[in-house]
Amino acid sequence: MKNKITAILILLLMISSSCKDLSVLPTDATSTETLVTTQAGLTNALNGAYALFKDHITFNGIVDQNNMYLRQFYHLSDFASDDIVNGQVTTDPLYYSFTLGHSPSQGNTRYFWYVSYKIISGVNTVIDAVEKSGDQDPAKQQLLGECYFLRAFCHFNLVRFFGKPYSIDPESPGIILRTSLNDESVKTRSTVAEVYASVIADAEKAASLMTQPRGVQYASKEAAWALLSRVNLYKEDNQKAIDYANQVINSGRFALETKASYPGLFSKATSSNETIFCIAFTAADDYGKFGSIASMIYSDGNSGWGEEYASASLRSVMSKHPEDVRWSYIVPWKDASGTVQKKNGIEMYYISKFSFQDGSPNLSSPIMFRLAEMYLNKAEAKAKLNQTAAALTDLDQIRRNRGLEGALYNGALPAGYTALDAVLEERRIELAFEGHRTFDVFRNKRSLDKTYWGYHLPGLKETDIDLSRVPSGYPNMVVPYTNPRIIYFIPIDEVLSNAQVVQNP
To answer: Among 58, 294, 316, 469, which one is most buried in terms of CB atoms within 10 A?
Structure first.
C-alpha cells in the first residue's frame, strides 16, 4: 500500500529534479513537515508540480531530451489528427500517432502516463497535508485549489487519450484514479463516467478554493471554470458547458485578441489578454532543436527538425478566407523564387504557434485554456441545443476579431452546413495545433479524413504521391470514431506492474 512517507519522498525527488528555474528552500533548512505545511514549502512543492509539465526528467534511468509532458501531449493529440502532416519516416515515437501504429511499449505514451501520475502524486501530498492541518488561510487555500485543479487536469487528459469518448461509451474502461495517498498500488481502471465525475468534483472544489489569483501561469478560479466548460462539453451536458463558459467570459479578466494583436498572442502568452492558463517557459527552458515543441513543426533553416507541416487538408479549409489573420501561424518555406518547397512531395508549411517568445524560434509558453475556446464551447453546446442563431453569434465574436468582418454569419448558415458543421470548422481553424482536433472529431462521432499524401500511410513509397494509385480503403486514410486506435494502449509498465489493469483492445 502506498503511504504518506513514500509519497513525500517522491515529492522531494520531484522538487529536486524539476525546479531548475524555481527557488527551493535550502535542504538544511527544510524538514519534511515544513515542506508540506509552511507557505513557502507548499509553494515550492506546487511549483515542482507545475515544472513537471515542461521539464526533462529521469524515466527508466535516463533523461531523454525528447521526453516532456507537453511534447508528448501534442504527439498524442495533434499528430494523430488531420491538421499536421508527417514529412518522412522517423524513429521518434510521434510516428506511431501519425500512422496509428500504436503499441503498449511506445515511448511517448509510457512517458506521458508516468509523468502524469507523478504530478498527481505530488499534488496529492500537498492536498493531504493542507487538509489535515485544517489551515483556512486564504493563501494556502489558493494553493490547495491549484492542486485540485492540476489533479483534475491530469486525470482528464489521461482519460481522453486512454479511454473512449464519453459520448461513445461512458461505461467503458477509463484510467486509474489516484485521489488519495492511501490508494492501493494495484488498482482497476475506473469507468470513463467515474473519471469524469471525479474530474468535475475536483474542478468544482478547485474553483471554490481559489480566491487569490497568482497569474496565468498558475491555476485560477477561471481556469477551473474553463476546464469545467470543456469537460461538460465532452460529456454533452450542454447547458453546464455554456454556464461555465459564461462565468469565464463574464469574469472581466480576459478579452479576445483583435486582428492587430492576434499574431502576437502565442509568443506573448503570459501577458496576452486571452490567456486563461498557460505553462510558462523562460529562457532557461529554451531547449532549442532538441526536445522543444516548436522543433517538431517549425524551422528557420537552423533551429528545428522541421519534419512536420500544416496539412493540405487544413489549408484547404482555411483557403476560403486568405484575409483570415490565423494564417499568420502557418509559414510557407519558399525558395528564392517564392515557390513553396517540398519534402518527399509534401509542401512545407511550417507552424509557428510555439515559436518566437523573446524572439527565439523554439520558445513559447503553451496555452492550455484561452478565451476563444469559451466562445467555441458555447457555440457547440448551443448548436446541440438547436439554438442555431445564438451559436452563430458566438462564432461571429471570434471571426470579427480574426479579420473576417466581411464574412460574418449574421445568423445565417452557409448552404449545406448544419450549425455543428460550422462550429467544428471554426474550432478546427481557431484551435489548430493546440491539442483539440482529434477529440473534437471522435467525440462528435465523426470520421477523420486523412486522404492526402503523407507518412501517415505506412508502407507507401515517396513515389506514391498520386493518391489515385493508393488501393481503395487503404488503412488509416479515413479513421472512423469506431476505430479502436482512436485511443492508445495502456503502457506496458502499468500492465506489468498492475495485474488488475485490463488492456485496451
So the answer is: 294
SS3 assignment, position 234:
helix
- Residue percentage of the chain with pLDDT more than 70: 89
When pLDDT is averaged across residues 209-219 and rounded to a whole number, the result is: 97
CB-CB contact of 124 with 179 (8 Å): yes
d(CA 96, CA 401): 37
Please give the grid coordinates belonging to residue 211.
480566491
Residue with cell 500492465: 495
Burial class (CB in 10 A: 0-12, 13-18, 19+), 3: exposed
Contact 323, 403 (CB under 8 A): yes
Confidence label for 475 from pLDDT (cuts 50, 70 and 90): low
Grid cell 522541421 — which residue?
306
C-alpha 70/C-alpha 77 separation (Å) is: 11
Q: What is the pTM of this model?
A: 0.92
Query: Cβ–Cβ contacts within 10 Å for residue 265, how many?
Result: 22
For the CA atoms of 325, 327, 332, 337, the dihedral, rounded to the nearest 10 degrees, stands at -50
The answer to whether the beta carbons of residues 247 and 225 sit under 8 Å apart is yes
Quote the CA–CA distance of 428 and 431 in Å, as a whole number. Answer: 6
Domain boundaries, the chain: 281-364
Q: How many CB atoms lie within 10 A of CB 387?
A: 18
Question: Within 10 A of 100 (CB to CB), how many other CB atoms are there?
Answer: 19
- Do the Cβ atoms of 314 and 329 come closer than 8 Å? no
Kind and range of the H or E element at 478?
Answer: strand 478-479
Q: What is the DSSP string of 414-445?
A: PTT--HHHHHHHHHHHHTTTSS-HHHHHHHTT
> What's the sign of the alpha-carbon dihedral 154, 159, 165, 166?
negative
Cell numbers found for residue 335: 525558395
* Dihedral sign for Cα atoms in the order 284, 292, 351, 249: negative
Dihedral (C-alpha) 295, 298, 300, 301: value to the nearest 10 degrees? 70
Q: 290-332 pLDDT, tens per residue? A: 789 999 999 998 888 889 999 999 999 999 999 999 999 999 9
The answer to whether 96 and 476 have CB atoms below 8 angstroms apart is no
Q: C-alpha cell of 407?
A: 464574412
Nearest to 279, CA basis, from 76, 75, 434, 159: 434
* 325 closest CA partner among 437, 430, 434, 435: 430
List the beta bridge partners of residue 334.
340
Instruction: Flag the least confident range among 226-230, 334-338, 470-474.
Output: 470-474
Of 74, 117, 18, the C-alpha closest to 351 is: 74
Instruction: Check if the beta carbon of residue 409 is closer than 8 Å to that of residue 383.
Output: no
Residue 159 grid coordinates: 482519460
First-to-last CA distance in the chain? Answer: 29
